[in-house]
Amino acid sequence: MDWKLEGSAQKTESRVLQEHEITLDDPGDDGVSESFQLLQIDVGCDHWEQETLPTGSAAWCSKNVQRKQRHWEKIVAAKKSKRKQEKERRKANRVENSGIYPQHSKRFLRSLIKERLLEAKHSGPRLCIDLSMTNHMSKKELSRLAGQIRRLYGSNKKADRPFWIYLTGFTTDSPLYEECLRMNDGFSSYLLDRTEEDCFSLFPLETLVYLTPDSDHALENVDLNKVYILGGLVDESIQKKVTFQKAQEHSVKTARLPIQEYMVKCQNGKNYHSEILTINQVFDILSTYFETQNWPEALKKGVSSRKGYVLRNSVE
């Protein structure tokens, strides 16, 4: 790079000498030649400066790239370190709990889950998701409902005493079915019952209990002889008493979760209090109660503080 600069400088100097010689040979000019000479000198200098610019620009770009590269390397190194620490922590937990919780293969665990679910089909509590109200739901609402079904099924698989799940009023040509296939991996192999039949025609009416926040009766227990219904409805316009009115039309008993009996309203910035929960939140409460027979513990798991309710004991 230096020899190019030297060559350029030599060319500039030679032009200057030549121009100076022309000026001496022609002293009769009226100063125009002198101005022209000076203009030639300026052009030569500008040309020389342009030749030197790429070197500085390249150096500046390389420094900027290097700085970004160092920053990225720090981020990658931090992530690797965090993953390594998490891996070591899990390994330590496995060693510590190896005597208490024996490790099993994934195949064994899948087999165990399948066995529990099939046992629930014959002798466990039954939960029906009423999907007959999805015709007027938007795509966004259908997507949210499909996500809630996925989370509900995931919680049921983890439960020691799972429920047997029914998806009623559920057709394979519906937009909800397509959304469930799109959002939920392995949805077609879920261990549950899908049927186009309505829940009111599938079971004897005296065995049905429709869970709705508009009911006057608080749920006291989970009865194995009953079939509990959750309305598969995500309604951003918040139409009130939709599920309650549907249950009344079919002369079916209704019940609400005992939130008012075990929880109290707490102050919050928006003064917001709601007993309306997603179907997976309601299921988490039912599942926890069925295993623990403890309503405060069950409600604490399903009702977040964002709903504006806290347990009475925590306030006292």
From TrEMBL:
One of its GO terms (molecular function) is methyltransferase activity. Keywords: Coiled coil, Methyltransferase, S-adenosyl-L-methionine, Transferase. InterPro entries: MT_TRM10-typ (IPR028564), MT_TRM10-typ_sf (IPR038459), Trm10_B_MTase_dom (IPR047911), tRNA_m1G_MeTrfase_euk (IPR007356). It catalyses: guanosine(9) in tRNA + S-adenosyl-L-methionine = N(1)-methylguanosine(9) in tRNA + S-adenosyl-L-homocysteine + H(+). Residues 113-310 form the SAM-dependent MTase TRM10-type domain. GO terms for biological process: methylation. Residues 77-96 are annotated as: Disordered. The keyword Ion transport does not apply. It is an enzyme of class 2 (transferase). PROSITE patterns: SAM_MT_TRM10 (PS51675). CDD domains: Trm10euk_B. Its EC number is 2.1.1.221. S-adenosyl-L-methionine-dependent guanine N(1)-methyltransferase that catalyzes the formation of N(1)-methylguanine at position 9 (m1G9) in tRNAs. Probably not able to catalyze formation of N(1)-methyladenine at position 9 (m1A9) in tRNAs. This is tRNA methyltransferase 10 homolog B. It comes from Bos indicus.
